[in-house]
Design brief:
This protein is an alpha/beta fold and 745 residues long. Helices cover 46% and strands 16% of the residues. It is built from 28 helices and 24 strands. The chain has a 10-stranded mixed β-sheet with strand order 2-1-3-24-23-4-15-22-20-21, with helices on both faces. Strands 5, 10, 13 and 14 form a 4-stranded mixed β-sheet that branches. A hairpin with a 4-residue loop joins strand 17 and strand 18. Helix 9 crosses helix 10 and helix 25 runs antiparallel to helix 28 (733-744). The relative contact order is 0.14.
Length: 745
């Protein structure tokens, strides 16, 4: 490979991570240029993705290349090196808000047609739907995932433990799931013997067949499954849980993945809304139909739509909503000051961001009265709910975990080539009537089928054989490298997992597992086993499928180190490249609001620092670039010093924020480069930089702090004005001059 190709692609995403990029990327680009490493930015933000799919609506200056598609192709090449920051997995309310903002900036985009009337509107909706949900990850994740807390982060959290709420054994908090009629209980699974093309079809009671997905390529040895959630069973379950929450005197809360899953979880969320507010939806059914009220978009959407009504009519509906609150149990609140409930917006109740704080905060959630209360955590599908149930029950029995002594639960996750549920968006359907859903192969043979009723949520999932083989190999490698037990979280009594267990047992003998402790346990057993070891200060590798990977890599880091943003997340791509992900973005919206209101950005970029070190190390191996290796090693040292010196953003105006943390990282990195002895040129070059930064420390921190405490206009939430955002995020002229001079050599 030529040195010319030695480049790292950094992603421009959304919200707080995007704002941080305006400050951090100039520093990174300047430092890495010294080692002959090029840094390029690719825009995969929600606004960028929307603009990329509507070139025909834009002026030549407004057109935007499809950076996501480009990165998707690159991810399949050996030289790929991509640093991916957290992005918005867009719900419909978020897409609409982004469209509105872009229109106000002069982009003549069409409205989102919820109910397309003709082919043109169908095409517009299909384009927007390409951007919806988890549109980014399946494209980039051409590899399985290796996520763990770096040693420096773990050491820091042991020395400086974050606050954990105290648990009591008489806590009424509990997790509930369906006992039948859900995805887990209806699942059928099989492994294909030969490559074929399949289709998904619905046969109604009169025998009329409708093809819902005409072409589905299946490889030999692929695990495929199909399942459905009964609409009737779900609504009965929700009603029973609402009643029970009232009886027990606890908050009602629901926890779903309604942004990632484009069809299933938004529909489940919609049922929770229409069951909880049943009286209102039944009484005003005709009005709501006229207004286009969709419960899938939450109560927030209802409030927006009824604004169009005459005052007396609107007030009557609002009064009926208030009457529901008198009758129903109190609901868990997203923001009790503003009256924003757990059922307001689907993007507010992302399970992996909403459940871990419950466990960290004594099992409590905020109620309408602005106080913390015990809560009923409703997770309808039984596939993964038992994991959270086990953690809650463990804390009731043993009390809260202690970050100073607890062990770690790193993860090896099966996600390559859109594996499992997160790859099922295009194969999930709301059943159009009573009848049969089935998967039929090219020869006309039915592979999987279900008797279903109108409104049921049916889905099919796939996981290819090559990713499974790679996943098993990764698990063995991590167990060998760490000497820690590796547990496959698979349940022999679940159809899909039973097929995976056959594969794991088939592929494990291909590796040297002598002396390693490798087990297969159901998610509930694996949780108990891992928690017991964690309490004793021992580590356990969790080897899981795609959705559990997502849940666990938020849950355990939030308990262990206070946040999942500080995790090292490496995706060794199947063809030899590397994707380096930078932690979670769950609190990103709140950070942006705080920045706009008071010029203070709380976002912690440590995830970016860690990913950058791993990315540089990978690049040094791929291109045999010794200078990149020195940059990686010195950045590791700078990261350790950064943590030890406690230079992460604080919480309020007048203290260090994201921009200040970037300055200190740059200072420590320059100092480490100046001190290394392997490359004299780099040492000499950065000795000067380190001295300038150290000599001007007081002046630079003064300029950075001076920029805080007043509202900031960045020209947009989803699509800021680059010049305004750069000015806001790089307010120290002294630091800018030093950084810009490095890259100018």
């Amino acid at each position: 490979m030529t040195a010319k190709a030695a480049k790292i692609l950094y992603t421009k995403t959304d919200e707080a991570p995007m704002l941080a990029t305006y400050s951090f990327l100039p520093i990174v680009a300047a430092f890495t240029k010294a080692a002959g490493v090029a840094f390029e930015l690719r825009d995969i933000s929600l606004a960028g993705r929307i603009l990329a799919v509507f070139p025909d609506y834009l002026t030549p200056q407004q057109k935007q290349s499809d950076d996501l598609a480009e990165l998707g192709e690159l991810a399949k090449t050996p030289e790929a090196n991509i640093i991916k920051l957290p992005n918005i997995s867009a719900s419909i309310p978020q897409i609409k808000a982004a469209i509105k903002e872009l229109q106000s900036q002069g982009y003549k985009l069409p409205e989102y047609p919820e109910d397309p009337k003709d082919d043109k509107e169908k095409d517009i909706k299909a384009r927007y739907d390409k951007v919806k949900g988890s549109a980014v990850n399946p494209v980039l994740r051409e590899g399985n995932s290796d996520r763990r807390a770096p040693l420096s982060v773990k050491a820091y959290s042991r020395k400086h433990p974050h606050k954990m709420g105290a648990w009591s054994s008489d806590s009424k908090t509990h997790v509930v799931h369906m006992k039948g009629g859900d995805f887990r209980s209806n699942e059928e699974s099989m492994t294909t013997t030969a490559a074929t093309e399949a289709r998904i079809e619905f046969v109604d009671q009169d025998g009329k067949t409708t093809v819902l997905k005409p072409k589905l390529a299946l490889q030999a040895g692929e695990v495929i499954d199909a399942t459905f959630m009964s609409r009737r069973a779900l609504r009965e379950f929700l009603e029973a849980q609402i009643e029970d929450a009232k009886k027990q005197g606890v908050l009602f809360s629901i926890h779903l993945k309604a942004t990632m899953m484009k069809v299933s979880d938004p529909k489940i969320f919609g049922h929770a809304v229409s069951v909880f507010y049943k009286d209102v939806f039944e009484k005003h059914a005709a009005t709501f139909q006229k207004l286009g009220v969709d419960p899938d978009n939450g109560v927030g959407d209802l409030y927006i739509k009824i604004k169009a009504l005459p005052d007396d009519q609107r007030k009557a509906i609002e009064a009926d909503i208030q009457a529901v609150y008198q009758k129903r149990p109190p609901m868990a609140m997203v923001n009790s000051d503003k009256g924003i409930t757990n059922l307001h917006v689907p993007s507010d109740i992302i399970i992996d961001a909403s459940m871990p704080p419950v466990i960290r905060d004594s099992g409590k959630m905020w109620g309408p009265d602005g106080k913390l209360h015990d809560t009923k955590c409703v997770i309808p599908d039984a596939s993964y709910a038992p994991v959270y149930h086990e953690v809650v029950e463990f804390c009731k029995k043993h009390g809260a975990f202690d970050p100073r002594t607890m062990g770690s639960i790193p993860n090896v996750g099966l996600m390559a080539q859109a594996a499992e549920e997160y790859g099922s968006h295009d194969k999930t359907f709301k059943v159009p009537g009573n009848g049969t859903m089935r998967v039929v192969d090219a020869s006309g043979k039915t592979l999987l089928e279900h008797k279903v009723e109108e409104g049921d949520i049916w889905r099919m999932c796939q996981v290819k054989d090559a990713p499974i083989q790679d996943w098993v190999k990764l698990a063995v490698n991590r167990a060998r490298a760490t000497g820690v037990p590796a547990v496959f979280w698979l349940d022999k009594n679940r159809a899909h997992d039973a097929e995976l267990i056959k594969k794991v047992n088939q592929y494990l003998p291909n590796h040297d597992t002598k002396g390693l402790d490798i087990r297969i346990m159901s998610p509930a057993e694996a949780t108990r086993f891992s928690l017991e070891r964690m309490k004793e200060g021992k580590d356990t590798i969790s080897v899981t499928g795609n959705v559990l990977r997502d849940y666990l890599t938020d849950l355990f880091p939030i308990l262990e180190i206070g946040t999942s943003a500080k995790m090292l997340s490496i995706v060794p791509l199947l063809n030899g490249g590397g994707l380096f992900e930078t932690g979670a973005g769950g609190s990103a919206p709140k950070h942006v609001q705080q920045f706009q209101e008071e010029g203070y950005l709380r976002w912690d970029s440590l995830g970016e620092f860690l990913a950058l070190a791993a990315s540089l190390e990978h690049l040094s191996k791929t291109f045999n670039n010794s200078a990149a290796k020195i940059l990686a090693d010195t950045l590791d040292k700078a990261n350790a010093k950064f943590l030890e010196s406690n230079k992460s953003p604080a919480r309020k105006v007048g203290e260090i924020d994201n921009r200040g943390s970037h300055f200190y990282l740059a200072l420590y990195w320059a100092q480490a480069l100046a001190e290394q002895t392997e490359d004299k040129n780099l040492a000499a070059r950065f000795a000067k930089v380190a001295k300038q930064m150290a000599d001007n420390e007081a002046k630079i921190t003064g300029e950075l702090l001076g920029a805080q405490g007043k509202p900031v206009a960045i020209g947009g939430y989803y699509h800021p004005d680059d010049a305004k955002a750069t000015k806001a995020m790089r307010p120290s002229q002294t630091l800018n001059a030093i950084v810009d001079a490095i890259g100018a050599h």
